[in-house]
Amino acid sequence: MEDTEIRILRVLPSQVAEHWPLIKSSLLAHQLIRAEASEESMTNILTSLMGEKLVAWFVYRGQQLVFIYTTLVQEDDISGSRSLLLYSSFAVETMTNYDDYRVIFGHCTKLAKFLDCHKVFTYTDDARSAQILEHMGGGITTRNCHELVLQGDEL
What we know:
Strand content: 25-35%
Number of domains: 1
Radius of gyration: 16 Å
CATH architecture: 3-Layer(aba) Sandwich
Distance between the termini: 55 Å
Strand order of the largest sheet: 1-2-3-4-5
Structural class: alpha+beta
CATH topology: Aminopeptidase
Number of strands: 5
CATH superfamily: Gcn5-related N-acetyltransferase (GNAT)
């Protein structure tokens, strides 16, 4: 095996606890768009990883961990369609080679097909991530993430 070969390994539920500090730090560094970075959210994510609702993936170049991402199958109860959400992604090491990203996105595409999903999608408010997604042929529907935050009596 060459030192530059990319390998993608699934973190099994039995391995989640052992790798949780690393997975958690990658989630917090990712600055989750869809979740609050609270202890309760992290506990829910940990539970989802251990219950296989959310799946963590480690990407190695040779023996070096370079990228961590998580995936989630989302089902639309109205239409019955399934999509694979790239829930989070984090570059442990700077990846400048688009071929590395092609391997990762190729894996997500194959995984989506295997799981009977009709598309792969993600959310990002990071310009570099959006640039990479566009370079890979992804469609960008918006560059800005907007959120309505209701607090106190508004809830």
